[in-house]
Design goal:
Elements lengths: L4 E7 L3 H12 L7 E6 L5 H9 L4 E5 L5 H11 L4 E4 L4 E3 L3 H10 L4 E3 L2 E3 L5 H15 L17 E4 H6 L12 H11 L4 E3 L5 E3 L5 H22 L8 H12 L3 H26 L7
Parallel strand pairs: 1-2, 1-4, 2-3, 6-9, 7-10
Antiparallel strand pairs: 4-8, 5-10, 6-8
Helix pairs in contact: 1-2, 5-9, 5-10, 8-10, 9-10
């Protein structure tokens, strides 16, 4: 099969969510879509293998449990198409997602990304989490040009040769910071990352209070590592960024707004913990 688009999906320990993601990818309007699932050392590898085997056009790659950055690199190495798109196992791209990203890339940019929206609106924790992630990405869009400086890897596509020349940094072992680092290196190398509004992904997060707190701590740890790597530890976001973030949270109601505020405390704590770990020489990998 000569596919025009490969989709790389890293997964670990979520075969149920993976099945939903793969069903969404099977509904894509792009013909002959190649799906590469990288199992990053799931405890029940047989369940993941069975989920992938049930989907025509999907292939399974075994990862080594070294995190999503390494898993995505493994998927890129196996991808056969000239355009590689990335999404996550708890996401459901709309039917025209892959075609929209590839079409935008065909128009010239090296990479393109679309909006990601909360697929679990009944969960205020998922609502707050997605408000934060979406604001972080969409605040980097330049309206006159449609260029972005950052997009999460649950919704991004790139020319395959660029992916291979600029792999994800596998020193980021967590699902945090590795996407910001990759986007910074992509745009720093002179490549354009374009916003494509038609490439919509629904993010189905399953979070309890503890999981939300751990997620935001993780983002803080990844944020510290990203800033340390790129020499921006002392460069804070503008007040406008934070007021916009809080407005976005409160637009979903007072509980979501309060959680967005609480998340900033968790993020700050995560950055502090990572800074302490870095000074001790451990790097805080785990």
């Amino acid at each position: 099969m000569n596919s025009r688009i490969s989709v790389v999906v890293p997964t670990r320990d979520r075969p149920g969510r993976l099945a939903t993601c793969l069903a969404a990818l099977r509904r894509q309007t792009a013909p002959e879509l190649e799906i590469v699932v990288v199992d990053d050392a799931s405890r029940d590898a047989r369940a993941v293998a069975g989920t992938v085997a049930a989907v025509p056009g999907a292939r399974l790659v075994r990862g080594e449990g070294r995190g999503p950055a390494a898993a995505r690199n493994a998927g890129v190495r196996e991808a056969r198409a000239p355009v590689v798109c990335f999404t996550d196992d708890d996401c459901a791209p709309v039917p025209g997602w892959a075609a929209a990203l590839a079409g935008r890339i065909d128009a010239g940019p090296a990479a393109a990304a679309g909006p990601t929206r909360n697929g679990t609106p009944q969960s205020v924790l998922a609502t707050a989490s997605q408000a934060i992630a979406s604001h972080l990405a969409e605040a980097t869009i330049d309206p006159p040009t449609g260029r972005m400086r950052f997009a999460p890897t649950c919704n991004i596509g790139c020319r395959a040769e660029v992916c291979r020349a600029l792999p994800f940094d596998e020193r980021y072992p967590l699902a945090a910071g590795e996407d910001r680092d990759w986007c910074a290196r992509l745009t720093g190398a002179g490549h354009e990352l374009a916003f494509e509004p038609a490439a919509l992904v629904l993010h189905h997060q399953e979070l309890d209070a503890a999981g939300f707190w751990r997620q935001q701590l993780r983002y803080g740890r990844g944020g510290y590592r990203f800033r340390a790597d790129h020499g921006t530890l002392l460069r804070l976001e503008t007040p406008r960024f934070y007021t916009g973030l809080l407005r976005r949270g409160w637009a979903h109601g007072p509980r979501a707004g309060a959680l967005v505020g609480l998340a900033q405390l968790a993020t700050a704590l995560g950055m502090t913990l990572e800074a302490v770990a870095a000074r001790r020489g451990s790097g805080g990998d785990r």
